[in-house]
Amino acid sequence: MSKKRTSALPYARGAAMALVALVLVVAGVWASWGSAQHVLLAKGREHGTLTVTGCSTDVCTGRFDPEGPAGPRTDMTIGHSVAVEKGGRYAVVVKPGTTELVRTGWSGGLHAWLPLGGALLLAALVIGGGMRLPRLAWASASVGGALLVGTFLAL
Q: CB-hemisphere CA count at 13 Å for 14?
């Protein structure tokens, strides 16, 4: 009886695809965490309402009215995106040590995690096509798609 020899190539391909999928998801979390940490860990940070008065190509500025005894300020900025428009009023939190603001609540949280949603969709292609794990791919795509659709509806 002869022993059956197995090639290492399928295992190497699977490991490489798993590494690519992992890098995609980690990159999505990394890109999201810059804003999401201020939304999720907002306790003890300065909260308030921003009324947008003007926008440039990168940032919008306006009147920030903080909660509590502090008076309104006009030197605060928020990133210009489809989620912010001139004349809008938004619940925001201040990034510590800066004049930058981040939207809070469900819409702000979903908007902050938007890069992760895209990363999950991309990882689903690698998981399904490269690793040949269709159930895991559909789960990843469903979570990523739900995050993208939820963000679209919340904004």
A: 8
